[in-house]
Amino acid sequence: MGIVGAGPAGLLLSHLLARQGIESVVLESRSREYVEQRVRAGVLEHPTVELLREVGLGERLDARGLPHEGISLRFDGGDHRIDFTDLVGRGIVVYGQQEVVKDLIAARLADGGEIRFEVSNVRIDGVTEDPLIHFDDGSPQEMHCDVIAGCDGFHGVSRAVVPHTVFDRLYPFAWLGILAQAAPTHHELVYAGHARGFALYSMRSPEVTRLYLQVPPDTDADTWSERRIWDELGVRLAADGFTLNEGPLIEKGVTGMRSFVAEPMRHGRLFLAGDAAHIVPPTGAKGMNLAVADVRVLAEALTGLLRHGDETGVDAYSQTCLRRVWRAEHFSWWMTSMLHMGEDDDPFTRRLQLSQLRQTVSSRAAATTLAENYVGLPHGSI
Ligand code: RFL
Ligand code: PHB
């Protein structure tokens, strides 16, 4: 079995298959150091946490992850808590994606798994007859596979091999994200829908804060000095009794925002999973969780195929995943639309947003809908 990409999707798939006695080789274009340091998502939804624990990856997660029982929505100068535990009886864990990646790489290598870093010129062939991956690791190589998983992210090579239809939306804004050496002053995430634009307060550890500001899509991060970032965060996150701890920046970057789905997620014996098949704007914190959900379905399907010759799971793979994908697409689009200010937004749009926010924090039914989506729908329930 060949897996292209050593992000959360590819590494977890390799780990899940190994537990079923199915060997795989993971091919990754970057170095191990690079993928272990890449700062991205931070929220693990409940089904993700349960799965990681179930498959022996819970130790560092439970020691270092930060369990959260809710989030705040902040708007109009007021702070409104959405209490996940009260509303749906489950919560989330804040644990950096690169920590998940470190845990997965360590587990694969400890189990004798094969991950080839820094390969180049990956090409996929013959997926409807005799799947084959060409790549270079100093010299040209060929790898024949029963099945290939395309887990190579949005800019990978796998998606182009699958004849597909694209459904997408670009947003007229981006996020400027920073990681700061500053102790969090608030123990849960704050999503702020301010008239000057969205801001998000998050964290990675008791010493490190993760913060985001909505900025125009073509923003050069260098045009934002540390002072300007802290001042703007101070304005957008302001609420009674809230103070923001400032500290030296460890990281600063701009991420564009888009919604994107490629259908179907399979062609012959090539299966797409994670960002290779779909992208969500980060407002719903769903990107990495969807990647995990895809490979959970894929590992079950491939176990059926490769161990028992049963094609039911692989035939249903794309449809099964796309139901969850579209739920997350809707949720992420909804959270994004409710909290961001478009440059052309008129006062009517702003009033609609405020009305939606007020209903979300004051109606138990509306708050429950947010909570249910945010903490993640149970595996197999959608
Ligand atoms: P990944 O993590 O992108 O992993 C794909 C891997 O494939 C490798 N690769 C190749 N390897 C071999 N040959 C090729 N031709 C290859 N092309 C690519 C890449 O080097 C990489 O190691 O995809 P995966 O596993 O599907 O995981 C998905 C998540 O990473 C992603 O959904 C989230 O991180 C999205 N995302 C965020 N999600 C959130 O929920 N909250 C966030 O704050 C957040 N921030 C982000 C993000 C994604 C970003 N990207 C993709 C630009 C910030 C950024 C910058
Ligand atoms: C993060 O901590 O990086 C984070 C948290 C919640 C989001 C997006 C990113 O919705």
Question: Main traits of this protein?
Answer:
37% helix, globular, FAD/NAD(P)-binding domain, binds P-hydroxybenzoic acid, eight-stranded mixed beta sheet, six-stranded mixed beta sheet, 382 residues, alpha+beta, binds 8-demethyl-8-dimethylamino-flavin-adenine-dinucleotide
Q: Kindly state the percentage of residues in helix.
A: 25-40%
* DSSP strand content: 25-35%
The count of β-strands is 20
Which consecutive residue ranges, at least 5 long each, have pLDDT under 50? none
Broad shape: globular
Mean pLDDT across residues: 97
CATH architecture of the domain at 2-68 and 92-168 and 258-341: 3-Layer(bba) Sandwich
The top-level CATH class of the domain at 2-68 and 92-168 and 258-341 is Alpha Beta
- CATH fold name of the domain at 2-68 and 92-168 and 258-341: FAD/NAD(P)-binding domain
What's the SSE blueprint?
Layout: E1 2-4, H1 8-19, E2 25-27, H2 32-37, E3 43-44, H3 46-54, H4 59-64, E4 66-68, E5 70-75, E6 78-83, H5 84-88, E7 92-94, H6 97-110, E8 114-116, E9 120-125, E10 132-136, E11 140-144, E12 148-150, E13 165-181, E14 189-194, E15 197-205, E16 208-215, H7 226-237, E17 249-263, E18 266-267, E19 270-272, E20 278-279, H8 287-308, H9 312-339, H10 347-362, H11 364-375
Parallel strand pairs: 1-2, 1-12, 2-8, 5-14, 12-19
Antiparallel strand pairs: 3-7, 4-7, 5-6, 9-10, 10-11, 13-16, 13-17, 14-15, 15-16, 17-20, 18-19
Helix pairs in contact: 1-6, 1-8, 8-9, 10-11
The structure holds 8-demethyl-8-dimethylamino-flavin-adenine-dinucleotide and P-hydroxybenzoic acid (PHB).
